[in-house]
Design brief:
The protein is mainly α. The protein has 7 helices and no strands. The chain starts with a helix and ends with a helix. It folds into 2 domains: 31 residues; 144 residues, no CATH class. Helix 1 crosses helix 3.
């Protein structure tokens, strides 16, 4: 009986190991196997030039994780795992984490502005101005829309740049993150 359990456990371990090897092969198939060392065209960023396929995949996961429901978790986990390792993955994950935090606070502030706009719209409606409340609420929603669209665009671009092994600093967010990476 004990030998059968050991065989079952071993086969589970072998299955998991096979899955991991398959995932690594798939990742290398997506992002390539070269480490960019000795590349014929040198890159301006040494971290990107030396980024392995796995480092590029980690960096892309930090950017693209929020699209799959891992809003704060993906950039935080990648940054914690890679902060002592690959500079390329660390920089991309740090920018993704700063973007996530910036988005959170931007949405909170935007919702407060939207709430204020709804209050003003209610007052304008009580005063008899029928069309004005709709426009006030629309203007109040603009900050939330800007933050969401900016975050989605930066995450998508960052994920694609990371998969391709390209050095990239996000507009606005990169400047904020730059002072906190070392």
């Amino acid at each position: 009986m004990e030998n059968q359990n050991q065989n079952e456990n071993q086969s589970i371990a072998e299955v998991v190991a096979g899955w991991m090897k398959g995932a690594e092969r798939a990742a290398v198939g997506v992002v390539g196997n070269d480490t960019r060392v000795g590349s014929p065209e040198p890159r301006p960023d040494d971290a990107a030039a030396n980024a392995s396929a796995i480092d590029r995949l980690w960096a892309a996961a930090a950017h693209l994780g929020p699209f799959f429901g891992f809003w704060l978790l993906a950039p935080l986990v990648v940054w914690l795992v890679k902060r002592g390792g690959s500079e390329f993955a660390r920089w991309h994950s740090w920018q993704a984490l700063v973007l996530t935090l910036w988005s959170f606070f931007g949405i909170v502030l935007g919702v407060l502005v939207l709430g204020l706009a709804v209050l003003v719209a209610g007052l304008l409606d009580k005063l008899g101005l029928r069309d004005a409340p709709e426009y006030v609420v629309l203007v109040g929603a603009l900050p939330v829309a800007f933050v969401v669209l900016f975050s989605v665009a930066m995450s998508a671009i960052g994920g694609l740049k990371a998969l391709r092994g390209r050095p990239w600093t996000m507009p606005i967010i990169g400047g904020i993150a730059r002072g906190r990476t070392k």
